[in-house]
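Hello Y.,

Per our agreement to keep a running log of every chain we model this quarter, I'm adding this entry. I've kept the format consistent with earlier entries: sequence first, then predicted structure.
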Amino acid sequence: MAVQGVVFLFVLYLLESDSFARAMRALCEHHEHDNRQQDVEMMTVNGMPVAPMEDNDVADERERIVNTPVEQLTATDAVILRQLTKIFDNSFLAVDRLSVGIPKGECFGLLGVNGAGKTTTFAMLTGDTSISSGDAFLAGMSVVRGAAGARRRLVGFCPQFDALIDQMTVRETLWMYARLRGIHAGDIGRVVEKLIDQLTLEKYADRQAGRLRYKHVTVHTVFISHIFLPITS
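Predicted structure for the entry above:
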């Protein structure tokens, strides 16, 4: 058991290490580039438009993001997506060279039909799925070259489906996320109580978090998306 503990700890380190991720990306980069070229050629042969005609404002934004140095873009844009691309199983193009900058203080939304790539885009930003090509920058930090550091710059992510554990109370869930976010042990109690007060959860603090639905749906949805704002202040 002692040997297994050391081995699995080493494996976990490799899986979570940015250095290991960069090394694996370097090994796969050439292969992914070839696959991307094959996909483009295949779509061209089949008569499918590789790059649909874009609106002028979309084309202008793409040109701005691609041709402007990242250092200059970060002066105005908090989130930068540069030619962000995701190909699943080397065949399905989920996100096709998305290029956009989101200015600081702006509320920005992705609209599209099911399968348009909205969830995949957010999954790449949070590190839940790898980036096939291109890059994204959060507060100037590359998601590809510094994934762990970039994710720490992201405030939070409210998933499409239920992310709460039914068996844990609201207070227990807040304690869990505070520990996961690296809040000092001596400050967790104060931070948790501050969050409970700010989110008006006093009546529900000791109820199971995953069961606060329907009538109290705002408790359920606001809970995750705003959990980190007061913690970092």
